[in-house]
Amino acid sequence: MKVGIDIGAATNGTAAMLDLEELLATRLLVQGNSGSGKSHLLRRLLEQSAPWVQQCVIDPEGDFVTLADKFGHVVVDAARTEAELTRIAARIRQHRVSVVLNLEGLDVEQQMRAAAAFLGGMFDAERDHWYPVLVVVDEAQLFAPAVGGEVADEARKISLGAMTNLMCRGRKRGLAGVIATQRLAKLAKNVAAEASNFLMGRTFLDIDMARAADLLGMERRQAEMFRDLARGHFVALGPALARRPLPVAIGPVETAPRSTSPKLTPLPEAPEDARDLIFTPGPEERRAPVRRAPTPPPPTPTAEILAQLSQPRPTAEAPAEPIFAIIDEAEREAGIERVLGEILEDADASFRSDAILYQDFLVRCRIRRVPGEPVPLTVFRRKLAVARAGVDGAVAASETWQQALDLSASLPDDLQGVFLLVAQAAVTGAACPSDAALARAYGSHSARRARRLLTYFEEQGLCVVRTDFHGNRVVAFPDLGSETAPGDPNLPDIAADQSDAAE
């Protein structure tokens, strides 16, 4: 079904129409400096398409929450845990409800993590729920920055990965990305390059004008026109908009943002007691105590410093006898490995959360009287991932395996076990694990999710996946100089079958 959305008027007086079905397949990029009318354009697009398609708005400033009053959008407050946001996103796709993810009140890093968790939940929805969704991301340069800023690298990595999935791989899952940014130079190129439709607004910097002209197929000398565009005027191009660059003026909207542009208003008459109003604290104010910096000590005379340097060095005291018995680290590590082995012998251990396994681990360590302080949760996750790989002593001591451990440290905790399982097969020359074995190592029953993990490793540049003439899978690790033997990805999980037979 072809649905045309009226976004405004073209220069020739005709209505500027946007093919909604084509937009769902080709995505949209909006660029314009602050005050150029990007949010107005997005609001017009959302209002006109609301009756036809499910919508999801990633709103960093809380400007689009007013859509809820007239169009029935559900406002999702992002002040929740990442796991809760992921579950909410999955239910949104299941029930086909239009929502606004309100990120207002969070700092930049929290916004990036919340948006990544929400987009990840929508991206990982079950195949039966892959209905078309228009995903609008305002201020996209916050979530897909071209360079690292003041936020942590981990937050930037997961946010950029979520935006890349939306724009690069979201089409097959029904996700149509519409991203708006103030500056193309601040937006990651691999995210911007996936859009086939463009609406370019007013911009002043030469680098942004040049990129806008390149995206629209215009000559560099025509880029100056972007400086002269009025507020709410854009140049449109793309299969869903126009085959040639088309200037359009965005039409009016029915809802209003909570924040508006500043307007000049006359100043009130200055009161006679203005000085008292400013410098006299009100009754509700608490007078904070004045903290003065301590007076610095007088400088030490040079003669005293020289005298101290000329004194003989005092004899070091003999170390005191330790109060507690010295712990044998080798014995402690052996005890920890035995406990981890006992946990992994349980067939259901792979499908339990790390928190439950950690509690079981602590109880078993106390029963086995493993000496020393309890292992922290982060260290436990790392040791559990290594134990799941199942390497023997000779392989564990090899330089190649140590390099594999270093590579796995760059991955999230829940993916390290899967990576080490495949790396172990490559180091030992064993057959590539099947999808069922990889899914079990990840704690899932979904073979599709296991294959997606290998794709993620390949996108990170850690491995290369190929298929031989017999349909068997081979995973090569260029950094390790090794690869797995061919393995059938459709084989059942041998460990799970043995456990079921034993029961």
From TrEMBL:
Transmembrane segments: none annotated. GO terms for molecular function: ATP binding. Keywords: ATP-binding, Nucleotide-binding. Residues 6-110 form the Helicase HerA central domain. It comes from Borborobacter arsenicus. This is ATP-binding protein. InterPro entries: ATPase_Atu1862_pred, HerA-like, HerA_central, P-loop_NTPase. Residues 252-300, 480-503 are annotated as: Disordered. The keyword Cytoplasm does not apply. SUPFAM superfamilies: P-loop containing nucleoside triphosphate hydrolases.
